[in-house]
Amino acid sequence: MLEGIVNYFLYFEFIALIIKYFNSLYHFPLQYFVYIGITAIIRLIIVEHKDPFSVLIYAISILFMVLALYLANAKRLVE
Fold it and tell me: Which residues cross the membrane (predicted)?
């Protein structure tokens, strides 16, 4: 059940990415790819949480994605 809900969010974000592509004159914003990546890794943590070390690696990769998203948006916040 929970896996199906998380899959729904992945599909929803992918459809939102396609809609944003057409609305922004055929340009993919970076942040949507990062959102999809974070959601996919969270799905992996929820579904396959057998090994604590792999969960730690997934959590660190989510942290890196969030930091990359912050750095990508920091330029726009300054302007």
Answer: 6-23, 30-47, 53-72
